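Example A, followed by Example B.
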Amino acid sequence: MAENSLDWFNGLPADDLRERLRACNAADRFVDEIAARRPYASASEVADTAVAVTLGLDWSAVSQALAAHPRIGERVGGNSAEARSSRAEQASMGTADDVVRAALVEGNQEYEARFDHVYLIRAAGRSPAEMLAELHRRLGNDEASERVEVTGQLAEITRLRVERLIGHP
């Protein structure tokens, strides 16, 4: 059975599956629900279910997932699946100039002081300037609106990671 395929995913031992799912979304409820719904009929079903489960998480579960995410622009060390994903997703930060990097550091601090959690955005496919502009825009959100945005961003990140896990383009 080929690694990173639907059959591989459906056949993974429970502990291995849970570890790999945690790297996609660290919320226990996410891991439990995705694992419990196996077997899946298609890669799209896994990805769609991952999004639906993420969007249905309560704030405490979202907060648990947020705790596993580094700050945008932070250089992530280590060789865990989460660290590798974060480095790949934030690859565009390698092109950021010093002004944008400094503004992201400052913006991250302001955001965390305002909302008491890390600024989360799907970095894949976005430039550093786009992520900075979104950070500035979102600083104007009230807490309820920002929680909705954070959960949506977490769902996008989770989908990308699950698709990569099962080899779905």
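Example B, a separate protein, is given below in the same form.
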Amino acid sequence: MKNKILRIFSLILFLPSFICFSQINKNQLEVEREVYVIDSLSNSVIDSVSLIMRDSINVRVLKFDKKIITQNILRNRNTHFEIKYYFKDNKLFFIKIEEQHPQLIDLKRYSEYYIFDDKIYSKNYYQNMRICLPISVEDMMNGMGYNIQLTEKFMQKYVFNLYRKIKKLNPKHY
């Protein structure tokens, strides 16, 4: 009897969280499909501009039909990263950051932000690696060669600050 009550109670507790998690996962799959379609169809640059952020970050902005790509270079740190902003119905819905490893051209680190009402509602982080690449504990602690100053908190602020600056350039275009 106690096991039956415990099972029912567990089901009542976990069912709403399972439904909520599956809904988020479904939304993320829809976003990824939309991003794929935009990447497949958006090939012609509509506009481009160069900016300087924080005195040491050079930014090149490329505007496409439903996305904006920014190529960011931190002059003092030999760091290159690309930010892609994706739009649906003229609203920002997804941001993808791709940071190039400073020494190994085939390695990149990625951050993905799922956006709703101009706020991040979900995040995803990953990086590609070589299977044969030996990794020491020291390398793991020091960010594997990537710029450790590009923290999650910094990047979340930076992508929105950059987006606001881009919109100010020409609100009709961006």
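On Example B: Strands lie at 47-53, 57-63, 67-74, 79-88, 91-100, 108-116, 119-127.
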